[in-house]
Design brief:
single chain, alpha+beta, Alpha-D-Glucose-1,6-Bisphosphate, Chain A, domain 4, globular
């Protein structure tokens, strides 16, 4: 860890929105990439444009569409945070907080019904965090932009997964199988953004993924 890791970081007294949403995750994944662009430009793309910038990402989402449609989740070869909406009538993933041009958090609540996952609407971070119905699963992402200079930014992504004890015992091995796909998706999205915006001088490497899915220290 270097002093740069602390640039723009929140104090322990002010946890991130994601930490408030899922305070004790079953699994946690962090990844980051540095790009040669100011934070405002990176924010415009990350927050308002389609993140599926490569053919491989669009193809992967098309392959997932059959399964997600069976589970009642809308899916398309497009991933844009502006499109993520949830209502009581059509619950889905949604953005819960925005602090342009530096931070955004999003998440989805699901109930496990046999082999089906049913989304549940939450109207606020507080409602999301307090939800503890039997059989729940929580997924949340936190996007953070850390300015590293005049025209260089670090994009950091954190994923947290929460679930009640009974559901987690039955699903933990399934999530272990999904982990390589999630790692790949994070690297592809971050790498494609760096390809588009430019890599920092003297740097050309795929995005760093820290820790993978690891059990937190309770």
């Amino acid at each position: 860890m270097t002093p740069m890791d602390f640039r723009g970081a929140r104090s322990m007294e002010s946890p991130s929105a994601l930490a408030r949403m899922i305070s004790t995750p079953r699994r946690r994944l962090t990844a980051h990439v540095d790009v040669a662009a100011p934070a405002a430009e990176v924010w415009q793309i990350v927050r308002h444009e389609n993140l599926l910038r490569t053919l491989s990402l669009r193809s992967a989402f098309r392959l997932m569409s059959y399964w997600t449609q069976r589970q009642g989740v809308r899916s398309a070869p497009r991933l844009c945070l502006d499109d993520l909406m949830s209502t009581p009538e059509r619950p889905s993933i949604r953005v819960f907080s925005d602090e342009p041009p530096l931070r955004s958090s999003l998440g989805v609540l699901m109930l496990v019904r046999g082999m089906r996952f049913e989304c549940v609407h939450a109207s606020s971070i507080e409602e999301f965090a307090a939800f503890d119905a039997p059989g729940f699963v929580k997924l949340g992402w936190y996007l953070e932009l850390l300015p590293l200079g005049v025209a260089q930014t670090r994009l950091r992504v954190e994923l947290r997964l929460g679930a009640d004890e009974k559901v987690w015992r039955s699903l933990r091995w399934s999530f272990a199988c999904v982990k390589p796909l999630l790692d790949w998706a994070h690297r592809q999205v971050l790498g494609s953004l760096a390809d588009h915006l430019g890599w920092p001088r003297m740097v050309r490497a795929r995005p760093a993924t820290a820790g993978g899915f690891t059990l937190p220290n309770f």
